[in-house]
Structure formats: structure tokens, C-alpha cells
Amino acid sequence: MTPDPLNRLVAQLAKLPGIGEKTAQRLAFHILRAPGEYAQELSQAIREVKEKVHLCARCFSLTDSELCGFCRDERRDERVLCVVETFADLMALERTREFKGRYHVLHGVLSPLDGVGPEQLRIKELLTRLGDGHVEEIILATNPDVEGEATALYLTRLLKPMGIRVSRIAQGLPMGGDLEYADQATLAKALSARREL
Predict the structure, then answer these.
(1) Where in the chain are the C4-type zinc fingers (predicted)?
(2) Regarding beta strands 137-141 and 165-168, do their DSSP bridges make them parallel or antiparallel, or are they unpaired?
């Protein structure tokens, strides 16, 4: 009979994305065998991420200060803004080391069947950001699936009348795929071969 605390740990670990029952058990046994300091450091790291990490006041990326590192970095080109669905997509693009502009994270895509409309995304904040007149190009880097394409089309219709160049990352990514899981070379090619909408 397995002890209740171990069962609870396995149950909580199994709730993580991509973690099944067997992997959760392996992780739980690893934590159990590790020195006590490791378990305390792990629990402290989880506590700190929940207490200290929040959305950037400008781009809605993740940060532990008012503005994220991307927004604070003066070397980044403020004239080019890349719009992504999630922070994971932002990090995938950042790993290519090709993009030197700034970001805006929508925190989702339009999905009427799931009840996600423009009001649930950071679209209003995007339009507010554009009011300062610094942005000359917006790269729409939503996923190449039905919802991502619909979101890109919706944003294009909003942004084109503002006189800002709107481009879409190139179709080097498979339809139905996620930016987060694409390799660096494919993402770099998609960024460099983007097209105007």
C-alpha cells in the first residue's frame, strides 16, 4: 500500500501537461530519493513563480518586474512588433536569435466555439500601444492553424487602415503545428521569409 503523501504527490505531478501516471511516479520517487534540500528548493521555486511572476505592463510577456527584459532592452528595434499567441511562442522565436524587435503576447487566439473573442485577448492593449506612432511593421506570428489564421486575418483588418505595414511569418511551418515545438532553423526561415498581407 502506497503512503498517502506519495499518492498525493503523484496525483499532482500527473496533472502537469505531458506527464502521465508512470512519469509522475518516476518524478515522485526521484523527489523522495533526493536530499531534503532539493525538495525544499523545488517547493520554494514553485512558490516564488506563483508569487513573483506576472504579466509585463507593456507587452504582456512574463516578468518579475514592471516591464520584461524585452521591453527594457534599449537595443531592440521598437519599430518592429511581433505579435504571438503565448509566451512559449515568444521564447521559441527568441531561440532563433533572428528577431531583434519587440513583442506583444495575445494570450490566446480567436476561437468562437470556445467562447474566445477579441475581448478575451490583448488586442485592445495592442491597439493602444500603436498610438505612440513608433511601430512601422507588425509581424503576425500566430500558429498556422485555423484559429491562428483567423486571428491573423482579424488583426490584419484592424491594423491595415492604420497605415502600419502588416506581415505574416512565412508558411514554412506545418498546418496545425505549434511554434513552440518547431525547430530553430524552420522558425528562422519563417521569420526571414515573412510576407506582407
Answers:
(1) 56-71
(2) parallel
Asked whether 88 and 142 are in contact (CB, 8 A), the reply is: no
Q: What domains are defined for the chain?
A: 4-52 (1.10.8.420), 75-196 (3.40.1360.10)
**Rounded to 5 degrees, what are φ and ψ at 31?**
-65, -40
In tens, the pLDDT along 171-194 reads 766 767 788 888 887 788 778 777
3-state secondary structure the chain: CCCHHHHHHHHHHHCCCCCCHHHHHHHHHHHHHCCHHHHHHHHHHHHHHHHHCEECCCCCCEECCCCCHHHHCCCCEEEEEEEECCHHHHHHHHHCCCCCEEEEECCCCCEHHHCECHHHCCHHHHHHHHHHCCCCEEEEECCCCHHHHHHHHHHHHHHHHHCCEEEECCCCCCCCCCHHHCCHHHHHHHHHCCEEC
Per-residue pLDDT reduced to its tens digit, 104-127: 999 999 998 899 999 999 999 999
pTM of the model: 0.79
Let me know: does 102 contact 78? Beta carbons within 8 Å.
Answer: yes
Phi, psi of 80 (to 5 degrees): -120, 125
